[in-house]
Specification:
Elements: H1 3-7, E1 28-34, E2 49-52, H2 55-60, E3 68-73, H3 85-100, H4 108-120, E4 124-132, E5 137-144, E6 150-154, H5 160-175
Antiparallel strand pairs: 1-2, 1-3, 4-5, 5-6
Helix pairs in contact: 3-4
The structure holds zinc ion.
Residues 16, 18-19, 21, 53-54, 56-57 line the site of zinc ion.
């Protein structure tokens, strides 16, 4: 197939052409090239067209004739390194928020550490510290200056190991390497289907 023809094939679809299942996070999924038959002559869509399928629907298409098919690779967007303070604060605040709405007791050390970082960066403002003499606990009440919400943080005493792990986690968060996204340059090639063309895989859209 010549390059010009190939370029006319549309971008990967966000959903399966048959059932509408989301394909963006599907990892790999079949894509087919359909070249219209003679009868469609004169119609606007007489260009080869691309059809994306979820694996289940692809099974149903066995026996259908395609010009070619291949496995499309859909990679999750890779977060990039933060570029400025604003991005840094937004990413840290979102990270904090995520755990704040999870099991707070379980993530107490992480929340405590993140809260102090966010206070230093002016995202949270300290309001007061409340002590509970009965169980010798302490909580910090802050205001989130972005959402104007009050945030309550239980005091925690992270161990050295926890601190190291949390700091590394935050470094990776800000570098954009925290997610399980594949490391750049090492993503495997998709295996071409036997006896078909084209065998090229999709590159993610910029
Ligand atoms: Zn489907």
């Amino acid at each position: 197939m010549d390059k010009e023809l190939y370029l006319k094939i549309s971008k990967p679809l966000a959903t399966c052409i048959l059932c509408g299942a989301s394909l963006a996070e599907a990892g790999k999924h079949p894509s087919a090239l359909v070249v219209p038959v003679e009868e469609s002559e004169g119609e606007e869509d007489d260009l080869p067209r691309r059809e994306d399928y979820c694996p289940q629907c692809w099974e149903k298409c066995k026996g259908k004739e395609f010009f070619g098919y291949w496995l499309a690779k859909r990679e999750p967007l890779k977060p990039r390194k933060v570029q400025n303070r604003r991005e840094r604060n937004a990413r840290l605040a979102a990270y904090f928020d995520y755990f704040y709405h999870q099991d707070r007791e379980l993530h107490a050390s992480r929340l405590f550490f993140l809260a102090h970082l966010l206070m230093r960066y002016g995202v949270l403002r300290w309001l007061r510290t409340e002590k509970d003499p009965e169980n010798n606990s302490e909580r910090i009440i802050c205001r989130n200056l972005v959402t104007d919400e009050e945030v309550v943080i239980e005091s925690a005493q992270p161990t050295d190991e926890e601190l190291v792990a949390i700091k590394r986690e935050i470094d990776e968060l800000l570098l954009g390497t925290l997610s399980s996204a594949p490391v750049e340059g090492t993503s495997e090639e998709s295996a071409p289907e036997a006896g078909t063309a084209p065998t090229s895989s999709d590159t993610p859209e910029a």
